[in-house]
Amino acid sequence: MTPFLAAADLLATTRSLFSGALACYQGNPRATAWLRHHLDRLEQPIQVAIVGGPRSGKSTLVNALVGEEVAPLAAGARPVTCYRGGPVPRVRVHAPHRPPWEIPAERRNRGLRLATGNQLPRDVDRVVVDWPARLLRDLTLIDTPPLTGDGPAHQAAVQADAVVHLTRHLPGTELPLLTSLQDNTFGPLGPVSALVVLSRADEIAGGGIDALSSAKQLARRFRGDPRAQVACQAILPFAGLVATAGRTLRDEEFALLQHLSTVPREEREDLLLSADRFLAAEQLPASEDERRWLVERWGLFGLRLTTALIRTGCGSAVQLAAQLAQRSGLSDVREMIRLCFVERAEVLKARTAWLALDVLLRSEPRPGTRELAADLERVAAGAHDFAELRLLAALESGRVQLPGDLADRARQLAGSHGTTPHARLAQDPDAGVEELHLAVSAELRDWRDHMGNPAFTADQREAARIVARSCAGMLIRLTG
């Protein structure tokens, strides 16, 4: 059996592989620069590309995740834009055939404002934004142009450690492109580094108050489709306008929504049947400019939802924002990004480095590279995190089913609620090593028994083997 490699050991082993590669390619400046670039990336936060077709809501998702209006940077041109954590706002732009330069920027009105207004030079193809946001301490978000063929968005997705793919419809026409990103260089890793977000979920079922529930049912049904199983780890509905507006909600805006919520229900619902009706409703306690701004910012679904929530008990901007994060799907998207990407950042970053090293070893073989390639393949085979992620995706889609409470136990032990021993074993944060040792030993015995259960299918026994190996890995770390 391939040795179990914990994430920290995986990074150390990956660095060792790169040290060997640097020795092999000494005297080749291009190859050593490639290797050092990917070595440096191991020390940086995980890079997550946001991709999708035209008007799929990529920048809207970036704004909702960051909690401020930072995207898009400019009207018209859509360069690849990297948002990373930094103490102060800073914008650095890149264009072919000239050195990078900075554009003065500031944080104003809960958003990013450029000294150049909303314009960038036409030849700019990449922008790096430093922004003080909690989320960006753990990851770098990459906002991309529309995903078409082998263009800039596809290249950004290939080079990122993980991908969030936005689509307006299921099945999306872009899913084959997403499937092509699932590299199989190191065997059938599966969709370990991709999530699909059903954007504009508020438009489903006519944009009624139950649109998000309908979107969740649609996502759940499609999760069992073989096309989805090879493309992504999970499918999540998301109402972008509502999520972003909720994250940037101001007290004066809440007061305006409160006034609208005082309109009798039947009259309010009638006026919110269309934007034209709402804009023409002079009897509402809001000016024409305010009504137009509300429609652009919230959409009709958002106005229906917010006024209903206020009437049923949301008495402050803070309470309403919390409800909107949950009901828009934003909380679920953030949690899945945390569990699938941030919690697995070390192994996903290592995978990106392996792919880069593999490209070099295959394209420029030298004495010693064959041995390096064999070592690389062995290290990749020992990355148990990938097996866990594949199992979680199979359980989520229903492709693998376990009887009784075994499915929930398998999810927990495989890291669905977090990858620390306490989270995997559902123990209190203050539980000691001895308590954890007893719990994981009992789980290991149970799952080894399930591995040999004659009533189980081959897929079920394989699931039990993966969970047992997760338990064995925890036991090694606890006793080491």
Major sheet characteristics:
9 strands, mixed
Structural class: alpha/beta
Mean pLDDT: 88
Q: How many angstroms does the end-to-end distance come to?
A: 20 Å
Strand arrangement, major sheet? 4-3-7-2-8-1-9-10-11
- The share of residues in helices is 40-55%
What shape does the CA trace take? globular
Write out the CATH superfamily name of the largest domain: P-loop containing nucleotide triphosphate hydrolases
Q: Number of helical runs?
A: 21
Organism: Longimycelium tulufanense
InterPro entries: P-loop_NTPase (IPR027417)
Protein name: GTPase
Task: Supply database-style keywords.
single chain; 480 residues; alpha/beta; Rossmann fold; 4 domains; 9-stranded mixed beta sheet; two-stranded antiparallel sheet; 11 strands; globular; GTPase; P-loop_NTPase
In short:
This protein is an alpha/beta fold. 52% of the residues lie in helices and 12% in strands.
